[in-house]
Amino acid sequence: MTKLSAVACATVTLAAGFGLGLQAGSAQEAPPVAVERVDHISVFVRSVEEAAEWHRKLLGTQVPAFSVPPRPLVFPADRKWDPASKPRYGHIALQNARIELQEPVGGDSRWREFLAKNGQGIEHLGFAVPDVKAALARFQQAGGILLMGGCEGCTAHVDMRDTLGYIVELQPLPRR
Hints:
The chain is α/β, with parallel strands linked by helices. It is built from four helices and seven strands, in the order H-E-H-E-E-H-E-H-E-E-E.
């Protein structure tokens, strides 16, 4: 091998190695979502009153006040849910957690769909995050499907059942 062909071979090898290194560096994973805390566990039920009463009897918790969201909810256009549907909910306070009971109100909805398919049960985990839009983008990048919300200043419900096994609710940290 001549001195020129050895230099050419080394140059090609170095360039190929450098190119592969750049590709490997660009394939790095996106940073994880900054979760401040698990805010709540959401359970979809047929009756919030009955579920709250069972919590009182079995766990000694207080029966909460029940309410509905004060504003209309935001559903993606491809969902065939009644735009006026919403949950009636109450929060069961435990020493180290909060259980959010939700019952369907109105027509076709994610609440009715879940109950028809699964019966009563845990539907999502709520995470408090510093930036809902950034967290939503990261979950969608990983294959998550927006189910509800995602608007400026509101929560986002993202279906991550194929990867995490549950739906995620992203909500802003409380303002201080």
